Amino acid sequence: MKHAWRWMILVWLAGAPAMADVPAAGTPAGQAMDQQVQELKDEVLDLNRELFMLEEELLFPANTQVAVFVSMDVGEYFTLDSVQLTLDGKPVSKYLYTGREVQALNRGGVHRLYLGNLKSGSHELVAIFTGQGTHERDYRRGATLKFDKGIGAKYVELAISDRASKMQPEFMVREWE
């Protein structure tokens, strides 16, 4: 993909007029040139968006795709620091959260932790949550999900919620339908 951008820039530069041929900015010809430059910028942005979507489709086809998301509810009994994700015994993702990201999760945000390809069959996903619990105690808890991957995309949510009855956090792993 990087080479495609270099090629587009070189083609664009090759067609650019020499500086002596560029009209002044305040003249009608200069305004027309500004309009053309803006149209080119818009076209490049549209092309970039289309290339990104095409790249996603090629790298992660829908029939083999698996995506893992992290969500939090309330967050009184646990402050998230990081999540480590293992799929079929192989580490696939580690993420260290900033304070702003944790605040966004507490307000209902969802973070895509992992996106990858997975063949059909039985699989095991293990998530290790690290953070601070009540009374600033360090927490390290795990959650496991065994699932069957069929044809089509598979979406999994790692949900962290407060269990008020025990005054502890609860870590759940569930499949989205």
Notes on the structure:
- The mean pLDDT is 82.
- With 177 residues, the protein is an alpha+beta fold.
- It contains 3 helices and 8 strands.
- It has 2 domains: 2-59, no CATH class; 65-176, Immunoglobulin-like (Sandwich), CATH 2.60.40.
- The protein has a 4-stranded mixed beta sheet with strand order 4-1-7-8. A 4-stranded antiparallel beta sheet has the order 3-2-5-6, with no helix packed on it.
- The chain has helices at residues 2-15, 28-59, 99-106; strands spanning 65-73, 78-87, 90-96, 110-117, 121-133, 138-149, 154-163, 168-176.
- 31% of the residues lie in helices and 44% in strands.
Explain the layout of strands and helices:
Elements: H1 2-15, H2 28-59, E1 65-73, E2 78-87, E3 90-96, H3 99-106, E4 110-117, E5 121-133, E6 138-149, E7 154-163, E8 168-176
Parallel strand pairs: 1-7
Antiparallel strand pairs: 1-4, 2-3, 2-5, 5-6, 7-8
Brief sketch in words of this structure:
By secondary structure, this protein is an alpha+beta fold. It has helices spanning 2-15, 28-59, 99-106; strands spanning 65-73, 78-87, 90-96, 110-117, 121-133, 138-149, 154-163, 168-176.
Radius of gyration: 24 Å
Number of domains: 2
CATH topology of the largest domain: Immunoglobulin-like
The largest sheet is: 4 strands, mixed
Instruction: Return the CATH architecture of the largest domain.
Output: Sandwich
- The poorly predicted ranges are none
Shape: flat
Number of strands: 8
The ordered H/E elements are HHEEEHEEEEE
Mean pLDDT: 82
> Share of helix among residues?
25-40%
Strand content: 35-45%
Alpha carbon gap, first and last residue: 33 Å
Tell me the name of the CATH class of the largest domain: Mainly Beta
Class derived from helix and strand content: alpha+beta
Quickly count the helices.
Answer: 3
Strand order of the largest sheet: 4-1-7-8
